[in-house]
From TrEMBL:
Pfam family of the protein (one): FMO-like
InterPro entries for this protein: FAD-bind_Monooxygenase_sf, FAD/NAD-bd_sf, Flavin_mOase-like
Organism: Streptomyces pharetrae CZA14
Keyword Oxidoreductase: yes
GO molecular function, one term: monooxygenase activity
Database matches in SUPFAM superfamilies: FAD/NAD(P)-binding domain (SSF51905)
Name of this protein: Cyclohexanone monooxygenase
Lineage: Bacteria, Bacillati, Actinomycetota, Actinomycetes, Kitasatosporales
Region span, Disordered: 490-512
Alphabetical keyword list: FAD, Flavoprotein, Monooxygenase, Oxidoreductase
Gene3D superfamilies documented for this protein: FAD/NAD(P)-binding domain
Record has Aminoacyl-tRNA synthetase as a keyword: no
Family of the protein in this entry: Belongs to the FAD-binding monooxygenase family.
Amino acid sequence: MAEHEHVRVAVIGSGFGGLGAAVRLRREGITDFVVLERADSVGGTWRDNSYPGCACDVPSHLYSFSFAPNPDWPRTFSGQEHIRAYLERVADVFGLRPHLRFDSEVKLMTWDAEQLRWEIETASGRLTADLVVSATGPLSDPKIPDIPGLDTFPGKVFHSARWDHDYDLKGKRVAMVGTGASAIQIVPAIQPRVGRLTLFQRTPPWVMPRMDRAISGAERWLHRQLPFTTQARRGLLWGIRELQVQAFTKHPGELGFVEQLAKRNMARAIKDPALRAKLTPDYRIGCKRILLSSEYYPALARPNVDVVASGLTEVRGSTLVAADGSETEADAIIFGTGFHVTDMPIAERVVGADGRTLAEVWKGGMEALRGASAAGFPNWMTIIGPNTGLGNSSMILMIESQLNYLADFIRQLDVLGGRVALDARPSAVGAWNRRVQERMKRTVWNTGGCTSWYLDGNGRNTTIWPGTTAEFRRATRRVDLMEYEVLRPPAAKAGGGTPQSGKRSAEAEAAL
């Protein structure tokens, strides 16, 4: 990277969000951009999570870009290696390699109010950019709980997203901490190899069967020869999930039938009443993410597996102590304890117009206009920002909606002309988030009786979108300049007032 390189757009991260943004920039005719990636290859969370059994819980044909369909997905639910390979192909097919800057972790981004640009310090050098697109993703920085005595543990310790493939688990006494989406894939994958597996479970998840199968050669041939069949398959998968949304957002009581299906799934594999009682959640299904596995419960029923229905609270040498007082000896501890979602570390490295970091501004809870723009951070947009997550469908749909918003954001800058920046008005950010939080009140994520990673430290749901993906797409179709302050360089301000966008669009008013 050149010492004083300047680009029109700097994209942070090369997962689905970052690569999608790069493709969209090229489709908009913009080639003056870089993609800053802290690792040495693309893939984001699908590069970092390489643990045994890692796979997606969204069907393959829906968990891919609409502009880059893949007729050759090998399974209905693809494994990590296939998704990572798909992202590598996207980088190649769309000519993104020249824009990629690997080993370039962003250390600091500071807004220059005089020059109306971002000053960016990375591990490989410094640069400036007119616009920053932050696509670091919420599942990028692992979270390991602060457990007394953990530093005294003589064995191996690692997080599921930082799997140590050099460590042989064969015959070892292994502790799995956590029961989220990663853990229910890891447990059945390592259970046959380990000597003893102890699962520390603070809260049992709801688990439904995983209807996975190999996609036949005939199906793949059909998708290659008749591309509309791939689109039809994707459309059907999307439509089914859109119809499910009301049960999560407006009528959580309708999920009772799904709970019964989940209990039957458990009963088929877990015959021991005591174990079944440990594994039965006491909250409404959907409050936490519904997990998919046909192997998790059978693995827990194996004789070399113990379930401790309590969290890990202390480590005394090689002895692990649970909250219920029980003790377990272990050679290795694997943490499947999630990520920094509502307190993303990147927020500590973004310094806005008033000198405060994004983390300081978001101390009371993450907020961003249409999930993209934070007040006080001009020409800065985030992909998979606050309240853009989903509980039942593909995040790629939300990413593509935000890419539409990004494209129109850049068009608006072009229309305004000259050196210009857009800063979300605090009133617009506040109004948007009040509507989101009002809708959130009746959702299963807020009323289901659980504590989940969807909620921040204040108990506020700042991660999930309380509507359909179609609603979000309408809400992010175009930028409404009434929701932004237009900034000019200090010398240019003397000439007149701030351009306005006229009447607020009907779509913007009706979005929520």
